[in-house]
UniProtKB/TrEMBL annotation:
Keywords: Cell membrane, Disulfide bond, G-protein coupled receptor, Glycoprotein, Membrane, Receptor, Transducer, Transmembrane, Transmembrane helix. SUPFAM superfamilies: Family A G protein-coupled receptor-like. It is found in: Cell membrane. The chain crosses the membrane at residues 87-111, 203-223, 253-280, 315-335, 350-369. Residues 103-366 form the G-protein coupled receptors family 1 profile domain. This is Trace amine-associated receptor 3-like.
Length: 397
C-alpha cells in the first residue's frame, strides 16, 4: 500500500473530490489495511505464543491448547479446525471482503464522477454503496477472524462497538433497499408526479433518517443491554467467557428485530415490486399489440418492451438475492430464543455471512444488470487503471 497505489487512487478521484479529501480517504483505507493486517498477524502469533507457553507449563494438559487464552481459566474455547480449512475460510472471506469494498467503492466513484448518474435514484444507490463499503471495511475483517479462530482478541468495549456497527450497517443496507423499491414504484407506477415527489432534498431527508435510525437503534440496543434481559441473565452468566464476542437476543427483542428490520421492509419491497411487475407486464402487452398493429413502429416498441422486461427481471433478482441472504438469519434470530439457543455457533456464523453476502452482491447486480453502471465501470477501469481511454462522459440510448 504505497505511493504507486495511492497515485492511481488520487488520479481516479481528482475530477470529483478536492486533493485534501482524496488524501484523507486514502489515509483511512491505508489505516484500515494496516490495522486489519495487524489483527490477523496478532491472532496467529497470539495462538502460537500461548500454545508454546502451555506446553512448557503443562505438557499433559492438551485441552488448554484449544483455548483463546490458554493461561486463563475463564478463557473461551477456540475453534479447533484443520489448517487447510482455516486457509480456505480466510481466502473465501477475504475475496468476499475485497469484492464488497472495491465493488461498492466503484459504485460510489461512478456516481460521483459522472453527472449523468447524479439523480435522486442514484443518490440512494450511492448511500447504499457507502453503507455496504463501510460494512466490508469496518466490520467484516474482524468478523472473519472471530469466525475462523472462534476468538475475540480486542476486548469487550471494541466487541460492543463492532456489534453495534454490524447492526447499523446491516439495518441501513436493508432500509436503503426499501427506499430504492419505493423510488422505483413511484417512477414506474406514477411517473407524472414522480419528479414533483422525488427530489434530491426529499431523498436526502429519507437517507439521513435511515442512517440515524440504524445508528441510534443499534447502539442503544447493544450498549443498554435490553436484548439480554428477560431470562437471559442466567444463561449469559453460564456461558460467558474471556475472549468471546456474541450478541444474544431474548424472545421479545428477537421478534422485534426480525419484524422491524426484515419482515416489514421485506413485505414493503415485495408488495411494491409485485405492483411494478404487474405494471411492466401491462406495458409489455400494450407494446406487443402496437407492434402487431403498426409494424412501422415495431422496432422502437420492441426495444422498449425488451428494456422493461429486463427491468422486471432485474427487480426479481434483487428481491431473490435479498431473501436468500437475509431470510435464514432473521428466521434463526426470531426462533432460536424460543428453542433455548440450540443453533450451533458455526451455523449462526454462517447465517451472518449469508447476510453479509447481500452487501457483496449489490454492486455485482448493478454492474451486471444496469447498462449505465456497466459503461461507467468500463470507462473508469479502462481510463484510470488500464490507461486505454480518456473519456469522462457517458452516452445512453
Amino acid at each position: 500500500m504505497g505511493k504507486e497505489a495511492g497515485s492511481w487512487w488520487s488520479w481516479l478521484l481528482k475530477p470529483c473530490l478536492p486533493n485534501s479529501t482524496v488524501a484523507t480517504i486514502w489515509s483511512i483505507f491505508e489505516w484500515l489495511f494496516t490495522f486489519t493486517k495487524q489483527i490477523l498477524c496478532f491472532s496467529f502469533a497470539h495462538q502460537s505464543l500461548f500454545e508454546g507457553d502451555v506446553m512448557i507449563a503443562n505438557e499433559t494438559d492438551i485441552e488448554n491448547v484449544f483455548l483463546c487464552y490458554p493461561l486463563r481459566p475463564d478463557s473461551c474455547p477456540s475453534a479447533h479446525r484443520l489448517t487447510v480449512l482455516k486457509v480456505v475460510m480466510y481466502v473465501f472471506m477475504l475475496l468476499m471482503i475485497l469484492t464488497t469494498v472495491f465493488g461498492n467503492l466503484l459504485i460510489i466513484i461512478s456516481i460521483s464522477h459522472f453527472k449523468q448518474l447524479q439523480s435522486p435514484t442514484h443518490l440512494i444507490v450511492q448511500s447504499l454503496a457507502a453503507c455496504d463499503c463501510l460494512l466490508g471495511s469496518l466490520v467484516m475483517p474482524y468478523s472473519m477472524v472471530r469466525s475462523v479462530e472462534g476468538c475475540w482478541y480486542l476486548g469487550d468495549v471494541v466487541c460492543k462497538v463492532h456489534s453495534s456497527l454490524d447492526m447499523t450497517f446491516s439495518i441501513s443496507s436493508i432500509l436503503h433497499l426499501s427506499l430504492i423499491a419505493i423510488d422505483r414504484y413511484w417512477a414506474i407506477c406514477d411517473p407524472l408526479r414522480y419528479r414533483m415527489r422525488v427530489t434530491n432534498n426529499t431523498v436526502t431527508v429519507f437517507i439521513t433518517f435511515t442512517w440515524l435510525f440504524s445508528f441510534v437503534y443499534s447502539f442503544s440496543v447493544v450498549f443498554t443491554g435490553v436484548n439480554n434481559v428477560g431470562g437471559l441473565e442466567e444463561l449469559i452468566l453460564q456461558i460467558s467467557c474471556f475472549g468471546g464476542c456474541v450478541l444474544f437476543f431474548n424472545k421479545e427483542w428477537g421478534l422485534i428485530c426480525a419484524l422491524f428490520v426484515f419482515l416489514i421492509p421485506g413485505t414493503i419491497m415485495s408488495s411494491l415490486y409485485m405492483s411494478i411487475f404487474n405494471v411492466v407486464k401491462k406495458h409489455v402487452k400494450v407494446l406487443s399489440e402496437k407492434v402487431s398493429v403498426a409494424p412501422t413502429v415495431g422496432s422502437n416498441c420492441q426495444t422498449s418492451s425488451q428494456r422493461e422486461s429486463k427491468a422486471a427481471k432485474t427487480l426479481a433478482i434483487v428481491m431473490g438475492v435479498f431473501y436468500l441472504c437475509w431470510l435464514p438469519f432473521f428466521t434463526a434470530t426470531a426462533i432460536d430464543p424460543f428453542l433455548n439457543f440450540v443453533t450451533p455457533v458455526d451455523v449462526f456464523d454462517a447465517l451472518v455471512w449469508f447476510g453479509y453476502f447481500n452487501s457483496t452482491c449489490n454492486p455485482l447486480i448493478y454492474g451486471f444488470f444496469y447498462p449505465r453502471f456497466q459503461k461507467a465501470f468500463k470507462i473508469l477501469i479502462s481510463t484510470y487503471i488500464c490507461g486505454i481511454s480518456k473519456s469522462h462522459t457517458l452516452t445512453f440510448q
